[in-house]
């Protein structure tokens, strides 16, 4: 099963490599990983999506907790949560294709953020499966030149927070 | 500042080897007498010495090695300590900070290289941090689940002409690291209830009882309940080896009765043990009828390979104390009748095999006989530091350890070359104790250069080399699984060990008849101030038994070359 694990990490040099190293060393898989500082400059927030059975995911959270630089860990998928990913996608767009692409963008609430006579660059934010669906539906009509995705970030719904 | 911090931490000995990146530190060492430096002949030995000090005392040992090759030579020793959860602080020199990343002379990324085999590592970026980093290093190494910590110090952080304010912190707090101090009382109550109802209980204890200083509590608990106790390789000495309730080691080379008892148990009380694959055999066939209570300080050890029915996270000593209190307060008693039946069964198993081996009619000595003699000559009280191989298993099976912290071996990593430096690290700190190194002609050659260190620092350890002229443990597997194709497991061209140790300035003895063994061994131990190396010829064809059948259950064992359960 897919899990979204959120980690509060000391904003120290080498801290990220400990997390990434743990995953490769123990043969856990990483589907995506995002990391950036939080409002508290001594802390980073890291989100990793991974797959594994309950036993593996339990080990992942326990092993993460053992890292000295890790302050807190939660498995967001255990409760209600919101996940978002940002994608920028560059497409070949000329002639009548341009209107077609624009329509699809609107349906998915994407924005065209850069334009040349032959290309569109589209930005789309949403859950990962929405981004997948967008790529799939464009794939039939336009030719995709480049895709860049941020990886998933997540936050719990309601009043639950992950903080010190 | 480095040396001062070590002194303020109360460090008496450090084990190391100098080099360019550490010259400032070595100069500081020269100018003081509080911290004694021991110069080894290979950095791996420095780490093993520090590690063995920790195994014998529970306190972190300290090693000091230079950048590049010095640091990489130390990696095996760091990994050895890591797998066995041993506290250690390893200070590594590093090139000047402005050269880091430029492939400078003797630069290696020690933080990167050591990361998977340390509990934590630090890099010093500002000389003022040195005291607090060193304090943190000891704190992290020694608390919670112990482990090695590396402190990497670029040369320019120790420039003697640069002066900084120095204060050694009395204590440290880390917001992201809070070792647990006691177990959950409710969980302990649940466990106690199960224990008082158990009909076929077994206590399975490991290294967490040794390093957790809980052997007195374990003994008290087992005695008040009349439960059988088995120890892992790392847990030996946690319960007195000569006591009736001790059923021996369990696992791959565990005793028949210990493995049978585990397989048939209805309750297993695991204390500071991590259900290693050398213990459980096939996990899906492991102890089919048992419920499992697991006490461990590291939540990640619990339900990692075998699911625990009652997990208790906490230090073994404190949890056991609370367990004992609860049992004393409880109105219930252990089920004496059921236990009597259980003990009858165990005694039957014990008499069926009970650690027997075939003594040859020929004069070829059996390795088991050598260990039994060692046990007899030293009264079960020596520090026994072992290398890795068949001799290690024989030592574990046939030496009767009555005290904790006396059996010192590399279990999780199985590092050949550990034995001699380990014995040195112990002898250095327990000069009056009998310290034996049980080794093989293969293992001893991995760190034999340390005989020279022994001469320099006057470390009269007794080396028992069980010479079977082969990499016996490898050969055993080849006999059993590869139709005796002995690929690269012979050691032809062995040195004349007696001459070799004499060249290092020590006493060598060659023993090839059992009749001479006792006399020679007593003589060796009576030479209090000399290192004696006993080159003992043993049966080259001997195998270690029992041996669990691969992918079987706990009870599936070879009991001899021809006999299977
Ligand atoms: C050739 C060879 C053969 C071997 N054969 C066997 C064999 O037959 N049988 C066998 O048992 N082993 C055998 N081993 C060793 C095996 O590989 C493991 O090293 C060993 O089984 C692990 O012991 P342990 O479970 O006690 O764990 P350790 O590695 O000692 O780990 C200690 C556990 O206790 C916990 N702990 C630490 N401190 C505390 C505390 N204060 N309170 C509570 N918990 C704490 C830790 O978190 C950890 O989970 C063999 C090794 C070699 C090299
Ligand atoms: C550094 C290292 N290399 C290889 C091994 C694999 N290995 C385990 S036991 C063994 C043989 C040990 O031979 P010896 O020291 O003579 O002991 P014996 O088994 O003969 O008693 C080997 C090669 C190891 N454990 N450590
Ligand atoms: Mg040998």
Automatic annotation (TrEMBL), chain A:
Residues of the signal peptide: none
Protein name, per record: Acetolactate synthase small subunit
Entry keywords, A to Z: Amino-acid biosynthesis, Branched-chain amino acid biosynthesis, Transferase
EC identifiers of the protein: 2.2.1.6
Record family assignment: Belongs to the acetolactate synthase small subunit family.
PROSITE patterns, alphabetized: ACT
Function summary: Catalyzes the conversion of 2 pyruvate molecules into acetolactate in the first common step of the biosynthetic pathway of the branched-amino acids such as leucine, isoleucine, and valine.
InterPro entries from the UniProt entry: Acetalactate_synth_ssu (IPR004789), Acetolactate_synth/TF_NikR_C (IPR027271), Acetolactate_synth_ssu_C (IPR019455), ACT-like_dom_sf (IPR045865), ACT_dom (IPR002912), AHAS_ACT (IPR039557), AHAS_small-like_ACT (IPR054480)
CDD domains assigned: ACT_AHAS (cd04878)
Gene Ontology biological process terms, A to Z: isoleucine biosynthetic process; L-valine biosynthetic process
Domain of life where this protein originates: Bacteria
Swiss-Prot/TrEMBL catalytic activity: 2 pyruvate + H(+) = (2S)-2-acetolactate + CO2
TrEMBL record, chain B:
Highest taxon, organism lineage: Bacteria
Keywords associated with the record: Amino-acid biosynthesis, Branched-chain amino acid biosynthesis, FAD, Flavoprotein, Magnesium, Metal-binding, Thiamine pyrophosphate, Transferase
Reactions it catalyzes: 2 pyruvate + H(+) = (2S)-2-acetolactate + CO2
Domain Thiamine pyrophosphate enzyme central: 188-322
GO molecular function: acetolactate synthase activity; flavin adenine dinucleotide binding; magnesium ion binding; thiamine pyrophosphate binding
Pathway(s) per entry: Amino-acid biosynthesis; L-valine biosynthesis; L-valine from pyruvate: step 1/4; Amino-acid biosynthesis; L-isoleucine biosynthesis; L-isoleucine from 2-oxobutanoate: step 1/4
EC numbers: 2.2.1.6
Cofactor(s) needed by this chain: Mg(2+); thiamine diphosphate
Class in the EC hierarchy, top level: transferase
CDD domains: TPP_AHAS, TPP_PYR_POX_like
Chain ranges of the Thiamine pyrophosphate enzyme TPP-binding domain: 387-536
Example of a GO cellular component annotation carried by this entry: acetolactate synthase complex
Family: Belongs to the TPP enzyme family.
Family annotation (PANTHER family): ACETOLACTATE SYNTHASE CATALYTIC SUBUNIT, MITOCHONDRIAL, THIAMINE PYROPHOSPHATE ENZYMES
NCBIfam families: acolac_lg (TIGR00118), PRK06466.1 (NF005058)
Name the record gives this protein: Acetolactate synthase
